[in-house]
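Sat 14:20. Reprocessing the chain from the morning session after the first attempt stalled halfway. Input below, unchanged.
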Amino acid sequence: MLSVMSLFLSTMFSVFGSHVDLKVEILALRHQIGVLRCSAKKRPKLTIADLVFWAWLSRAWADWRSTLVIVKPETVIAWHRKGFRLFWTWKVRHGTTGRPTVSQEVRDLIRTLMVKIFMRLGCSI
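Finished this time. Tokens:
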């Protein structure tokens, strides 16, 4: 009974999973058609939103390479890497730089401990 139930559930998940994949594929193809319609020139013009869309889609959908027609899959991967680099560059520039500050109490405690250690060793300060 358990094997029949697991077979039924796996079949249901595969049916719904393929339905979702089909919807995502349709979305990807419609996006490419929209880009081609908007750009009247020979080479399609892609906006930042298009780059972000394909970078996100490459992470969210396993079969994204099969529907990509207007650019190479390597280009999408390069966009994703560039976005990742830009994010970390922004984060470093707008965050706190360097090591975090140590409170005065901790520094005083370290000095006290160091003095005690040097005194036990017989060293002069």
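The two ends are 80 Å apart (CA to CA).
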